[in-house]
TrEMBL record:
SUPFAM superfamilies: DHH phosphoesterases, NAD(P)-binding Rossmann-fold domains
One GO-annotated biological process of the protein: potassium ion transport
Highest taxon, organism lineage: Archaea
Protein name listed in UniProt: DHH family phosphoesterase
Domain DDH, first and last residues per copy: 157-299
Organism ancestry: Archaea, Methanobacteriati, Methanobacteriota, Stenosarchaea group, Halobacteria
Coiled coil: none
Start and end residues of each RCK N-terminal domain: 5-100
Record GO terms (molecular function): nucleic acid binding
Domain (DHHA1) ranges: 358-463
Pfam families the UniProt entry points to: DHH, DHHA1, TrkA_N
């Protein structure tokens, strides 16, 4: 629900009010305060809530509930300036759009720029401009985010998912920019590591400021928390599952209840970076070169260069970012040196692959870098006669899986959930997905031969469960559940 308050209602304000009332959702609220009794009566005749009062009077403003968005809509510049100054003092958390009137001078403009979030003058398509600032769905979410950032305590920890990809990194950096523009101290944070060479190149070449957290680190230094590119604490991040979350911004479908006072889950866009680009626009913030470059790269990676789950909003965001992005740095990011360990992992995947029809599965054994897995999965997918791949490996007491597909009748995210949700966590997109499986029994192995024997059995379980999920998908989950697989993945010291 959005509460919109209109203070002053001249010629322009009257048109805006009528359009706002028509565009509002059923649970939104609108209230008009003006000194013109005839306008109040006319609005009430149209079932628009209106009240007679002087919007320049502090006692009138003090008696009002704090709005989400406020429009200063009188005709006189001097009166609107007074309303604006007093409204900002009374409602510090509101998003304020102000009409400057038809006779604004330079000193008036300075005051409007200081106290209003958006200023509309007498030139151009005025009513449409006001409506774009106050009534569009994108504006509504930006209004909600702006209001919430003004009310929470800092510092704000903007937490990405574990081992973040470019979309998560770029989105976190952009939210930090937005928070800091409002005077809220913020820090982009992640658990795990950034080991993929392109992702490291992105962070290093753009000189992005990120904090690498470990599960042992205290979170007491932070006054509030935001989740970026994922939506549940403790699921693919190192946060406590019962953490109170203030902001959630993601484009993935949630797989359970989503906490958060402000939540933006927009599954119809291809990247979280697209959502943050729109926020930067709505906040009217200048695009920092590094942030713009990161956001553009994040959109390109998550949409596979605009070929996967792409939406019109992704193209528009890219066009907005393009003039500010450093394309020469993008070229350097996309052509980093491939490490020897990554090449060895790819080679093991090719050598160890088991192919059934157009589906190839490969274990690469022990991992030095889990980011080599998606690259190996991509390489298997490039082989003749293969349209779906799963590559997995082991690190510490975990098995990590990465899957790719170009088959039109397979949803990899659902397939991996069918195969592995009962023995781990899994999910992703239709053509790109992953899973993490805890293998507690490895901790109890006494020698190398025993570890090798256990790994061999686990490899067989993972391979068979994936092939079975592919066979039964789509439509029904895996019909059988192996007691052996349950024992392998849950036994602890």
């Amino acid at each position: 629900m959005v509460f919109r308050l209109v203070l002053g209602c001249g010629t322009v304000g009257r048109q805006v009010v009528e359009r706002l009332e028509a565009a509002a959702d059923s649970d939104d609220r609108l209230l008009v305060i003006t000194t013109d009794e005839s306008v109040v009566e006319a609005l009430r005749d149209e079932s628009i809530p209106a009240r007679s009062g002087d919007p320049t009077a502090s006692d009138v403003l003090d008696a009002l509930e704090s709005p989400d968005v406020l429009f200063v809509g009188g005709d006189r510049t001097d009166t609107n300036r007074v309303i604006l100054e007093r409204a900002r003092a009374t409602f510090p958390g509101a998003s304020i759009v102000a009409y400057a009137g038809g006779n604004s001078a330079s000193h008036d403009r300075r005051a409007f720029d200081e106290y209003a979030d958006a200023v509309v003058d007498a030139e151009g398509a005025l009513v449409e401009q006001v409506l774009a600032e106050t009534a569009s769905p994108q504006a509504n979410t930006a209004i909600g985010l702006r209001y919430h950032l003004r009310t929470i305590d800092g510092p704000l920890a903007v937490v990405m998912h574990d081992n973040p990809d470019p979309d998560a990194i770029a989105s976190a950096v952009a939210l930090v920019d937005i928070a800091e523009s409002m005077g809220l101290e913020a820090e982009a944070c992640y658990f795990g590591e950034i080991s993929h060479q392109e992702n490291r190149a992105m962070v290093n070449l753009l000189d992005l400021s990120l904090r690498n957290l470990s599960p042992a680190d205290s979170l007491e230094a932070y006054g509030s928390f935001a989740l970026i590119d994922h939506s549940r604490p403790g699921i693919n991040d190192g946060l406590p599952t019962d953490l109170e979350v203030d902001v959630v911004i993601d484009h993935h479908p949630p797989r359970g209840p989503v906490p958060g006072t402000f939540v933006e889950l927009r599954e119809q866009v291809g990247a979280t970076s697209t959502i943050l680009t729109e926020y930067l626009e709505q906040f009217d913030l200048p695009f920092d070169r590094a942030t713009a470059t990161a956001l553009l790269y994040g959109i390109r990676i998550d949409t596979s260069d605009f070929t996967r789950e792409v939406a019109p909003a992704d193209f528009r965001a890219a066009s907005v970012l393009w003039p500010y992005a450093d394309t020469s740095l993008l070229d350097q990011i996309e052509q980093p040196t491939i490490e020897g360990d990554t090449l060895e992992t790819i080679a093991r995947a090719i050598k160890n692959r088991e192919q059934r029809g157009a589906v190839a599965v490969a274990s690469v054994g022990q991992l030095s870098s889990r980011d080599a897995l998606p690259q190996a999965a991509d390489q298997l997918l490039a082989m003749d006669g293969v349209d779906t791949t799963l590559v997995f490996g082991f690190r510490d007491e975990m098995a990590f899986c990465s899957a790719r597909s170009r088959a039109t009748d397979i949803d990899l995210g659902e397939t991996l959930r069918d195969a592995f949700d009962r023995i781990g966590s899994a999910g992703g997109h239709a053509d790109m997905a992953g899973a993490q499986l805890e293998i507690g029994i490895l901790a109890s192995a006494d020698d190398e031969d025993e570890v090798e024997s256990i790994v061999s059995v686990v490899e067989e379980v993972i391979t068979n469960r994936f092939f079975e999920a592919i066979r039964t998908h789509p439509g029904t989950p895996v019909g059988t559940y192996s007691q052996t697989s349950e024992w392998l993945f849950t036994l602890e010291d």
